[in-house]
Amino acid sequence: MVEHERLFKQVLPVLNSKLEEIKLNGYEGIAIEDLWNFCLQKKWRKKNLAEIRIHEVVSTIFSLRASEIVSHLQIQQFQSTNWFSELNQDELKELLNPAKHNNSDTENN
């Protein structure tokens, strides 16, 4: 379910138009929900959406640049990725305490 669904439905044609423009510029893989969430999280995070006027919403959507949306999506992806999920406990300990493991390696030689 989309946050602020009533407003989302009102501006859906605008979001579709902006998404088409973005795709014409060679940016694939962006969904309407990505545009909407970007606006909610970055453009309107300090605003009360119950009080925002429809023309402000439309203006904001039309002023979006593909590069800022892509950057936002990349940052979100980096923040949500668990870089160490494939490591076992010993490998994690070695990463966190490399000096201990390096000393034991030199002692063995």
TrEMBL record:
Organism's domain of life? Bacteria
Record's protein name: Post-transcriptional regulator
Query: From which source organism is this entry?
Result: Ureibacillus suwonensis
